[in-house]
Design goal:
It is globular and about 50 Å long. The strands form two sheets. A five-stranded mixed β-barrel has the order 5-6-7-9-8. It has 144 residues and is mainly beta. 0% of the residues lie in helices and 42% in strands.
């Protein structure tokens, strides 16, 4: 009897592209064509929350950025919203697109993290669901 095939399931659909070729995944955002404001994750409607114009369009964000700030969390947070391994690193990433965003960090040794460090987007496992499938999410990893 064969083992059931584990699937990779996105934590949330529509946060990133899933390329079928050699392209790398990219985060999907919305940009206002009137005022230039960028929103991640992308907005489901066409209205800019900054200037109130109906001029949002979908864009792909840069895969690379810099750490702005981070913290290493040493215990499971309450509320059950985070189901990944502990400890974990979480913080802010500045992208050259002009957006600062929250992200988990992917690194084996938290001592490898530093402020203003070059990081790159990765998509990898956050946890396993009740059926044993991998729930994956976006993270940023220090560039080597």
């Amino acid at each position: 009897m064969s083992k059931p095939v584990k699937k990779q399931i996105p934590l949330k659909e529509g946060f990133w592209t899933t390329p079928k070729s050699e392209d790398q995944p990219r985060l999907i955002a919305s940009k206002c064509e009137f005022c230039g404001e960028i929103f991640f994750p992308k907005k489901d409607n066409n209205w800019c929350l900054h200037c109130y114009q109906a001029t949002l369009k979908e864009i792909l964000l840069s895969r690379e950025g810099k750490t702005a700030s981070f913290s290493v969390v040493m215990q499971q947070p309450g509320g059950g919203f985070y189901k990944g391994p502990v400890p974990y690193a979480y913080g802010l990433v500045d992208l050259p697109d002009g957006i600062r965003m929250w992200s988990l960090f992917d690194c084996d040794n938290f001592e490898d993290l530093a402020q203003e460090q070059d990081v790159e987007l990765v998509i990898n496992k956050l946890h396993e669901d009740n059926e044993g499938n991998e729930v994956v999410t976006f993270k940023f990893r220090p560039k080597k």
